[in-house]
Amino acid sequence: MEIPRPDATGRRTLLELYRGRANVTADLEPVVVATEGATASAMKELMRRAVLNALDRDPTADPPLVDDEVISAVVAEFGSEAQALSRSLLGARPDAPPESSGACSVGSHPKWRPGVRCSVG
């Protein structure tokens, strides 16, 4: 049985679910756009890394603060060549054709492929 990948609403909901107790002030809409084609497990890993990144930045924060800077860095890292294996294991589509709709606004390509670099504005 094939389980479809989450749509934009599903990815947004997953990010909210997996944030746990973290204080997320980041605009998640660019992340939702940048993660088109991602699996639910990839969304969980992205938010896990964001929370850990936030704790690395401020170990005393309770709850950890996931802001635009933190989430942008995590998405950029997750979309890098070095993370190709992680993306593959989490079900990302390595063969997805590049798209440059201009909608991307976080440091990776919308189909989890490196190459298009964007920044939170």
Structural notes for this entry:
The protein is mainly alpha-helical. The protein has one domain: Helicase, Ruva Protein, domain 3 (Orthogonal Bundle), CATH 1.10.8. The chain has 5 helices and 2 strands. It has a two-stranded parallel sheet with strand order 1-2. It is globular.
**Overall 3D geometry?**
globular
List the strand order in the largest sheet: 1-2
What share of residues are in beta strands? under 5%
Q: Please, what is the oligomeric state?
A: single chain
Helix content range? 40-55%
**Total number of strands:** 2
CATH topology: Helicase, Ruva Protein, domain 3
Poorly predicted runs are: 96-121
Whole-angstrom Rg: 13 Å
The largest sheet is: 2 strands, parallel
The assigned CATH architecture is Orthogonal Bundle
Task: Count structural domains.
Answer: 1
The DSSP helix count reads: 5
Structural class by sheet pairing and helices? mainly alpha
Mean pLDDT: 77
CATH class: Mainly Alpha
Distance between the termini: 40 Å
Along the chain, the helix and strand elements come as HEHHEHH
In short:
The protein is mainly alpha-helical and 121 residues long.
Topology:
Elements: H1 8-18, E1 23-24, H2 29-34, H3 40-57, E2 65-66, H4 68-78, H5 84-89
Parallel strand pairs: 1-2
